[in-house]
Amino acid sequence: MSYPQVDLSRTLTDDQVYETIMNNYSNLSKEWITHQWNWMNNVYWAFKDHYKYMIIISLVEKTLQFYDQMNIHYSYDEYYSKSFLQIEKFSISELCEKLDLPKETIRRKVLELENEGVIIRNKKKIIINRKAFPFVKPENQIKFSSKYIFLVSRALNRDKIYSKKLDQKIIEDLIKEKFSLCWRWFYRMQIPMIIGYHQFMQDLTTFHIWGTIAMNQVYNVSKILENENTNFIPLDYLETSKILIHNVGATSGLSAMSISDMTNIPRATIIRKCKFLTDNELLKVNEKKQYELSSLNFKKILPYQAEVFKYKAKFLRKVLNLLVIS
After folding, report:
1. What average pLDDT does range 263-275 have in this prediction?
2. Residue 157, burial from CB neighbour count under 10 angstroms (0-12, 13-18, 19+)
3. Helix, strand or coil for residue 293?
4. CB 207 within 8 A of CB 114
């Protein structure tokens, strides 16, 4: 059997991708926050409980890792051809460590998933029953991810770091063809990144709400950047963040009702979580009773956010390198 020769000089490193996304942040931030917000909405929508979904995808990621180790790969259509997925055995302690949750919480939520018929134990088999909950195939998420990967590849092309010319359809097709591999990489990016925000803000519902308000602010600031930066010269992470902090409160925020409409999180929960965020100066309330980012503690999240973006760089590097050798 002959194998294609891989030109290693055309492949990327994590650092190269990380530096590019940080140096071109003004051009990429709006698409990234849309990417993440869409994913968080799907996480919540599945069970109206972020952590139940995180438990499910943690178990799926472990199973996808086993497939990869055994050199078993499924396309998108093959992976979703069945209504159930057999998963590897798992321990409560393992999930606690991965998701940074107490044992009592994990046990309770796993039991709820079993009672709902989502996780089924059949003798020695453990099955995730996709029919038991409104399971969403990530068709739209693949499009969001592919668009962002395309924009990063274009930035790498401009910097003469990455020579392969791509379009969004080529990226979508590759992810679907190598789905079990690429989506394992996707989960390996998302799980630690999202749990990192859980640690920073104490729970994922709070982060989801804060992220919705942040998305609104980024869209407002993007308009300012487009007006002020007429030559479309990309601004790096720090310069973009300075503008974001400077313009906090300059435009309309979001009401509790608007956030509820956007996320499907109950209004009462939003009001309670926003009180925590305002008490900790991560949000403030304007004269219209709308929630806005607070410049004081927003500064604290910037270095933390830059650190978790390394998970993103690793995912991007793997997919872009796969495109080189495919």
Report:
1. 96
2. middle
3. strand
4. no
